Amino acid sequence: MKPKYLICIFALLLSSCSLESKMERKLRKAERKIEKLTIKYPQLLEKDTLHDTITTVINEIKMDTSFIDVPGDTTYVYRDKLRVKYVKVGDTVHIEAACKGDTIVQYVEIPFEKVVVKEQGIVKQLTKNVKGIAVSLLLIVLTILGLRLLYKILI
């Protein structure tokens, strides 16, 4: 019985260590950090506008119908995109209508804020951190000299 329990516990432990859940946690943590930074430093946000075009196509609509009417002749009606043909043949009337398709184009502007990240080259980073690098090198040199001195004293 014990091996079955161990296998179940081992399976539960392995299933909780999935890469996807780790990535989700890292993403949430990064989003929280960005939110805190933008609240503390609002100048990091830059307002920008996204321009997009939405195109909607309305297809052509056709309809046919026939009915009996009094004597007459063929009539055509043209108005904008609508075309109607009224034909009387004997005692039968044939009406044919068509409305041409249309395309509606709408330009949309969506304002949003984005975080501005300023990239620094290696030279700028080195000049910014020169003091820290100098102190680190000095500590390394002093440590080496101290170890040499201690080695000479002990030997």
Structure description:
The protein is an alpha+beta fold. It has a domain at 119-155. The protein contains 4 helices and 6 strands. It has a 4-stranded antiparallel sheet, with no helix packed on it. A two-stranded antiparallel sheet has the order 1-6. The chain is elongated. It starts with a helix and ends with a helix. The mean pLDDT is 80.
Secondary-structure class:
alpha+beta
Give the ordered list of helices and strands: HHEEEEEEHH
Going across the biggest sheet, name each strand in turn: 2-5-4-3
Mean pLDDT: 80
Rg result: 40 Å
Helix content: 40-55%
Q: Distance N terminus to C terminus?
A: 63 Å
SS elements, strand count: 6
Low-confidence stretches: none
Largest sheet composition: 4 strands, antiparallel
What general form does the structure show? elongated
Strand and helix layout:
Elements (H helix, E strand, L loop, with lengths): L1 H15 L2 H22 L4 E14 L2 E8 L6 E5 L2 E8 L2 E8 L2 E14 L6 H7 L1 H25 L1
Antiparallel strand pairs: 1-6, 2-5, 3-4, 4-5
Short description:
This protein has 155 residues and is α+β, with helices and mostly antiparallel strands.
Key structural traits:
155 residues; elongated
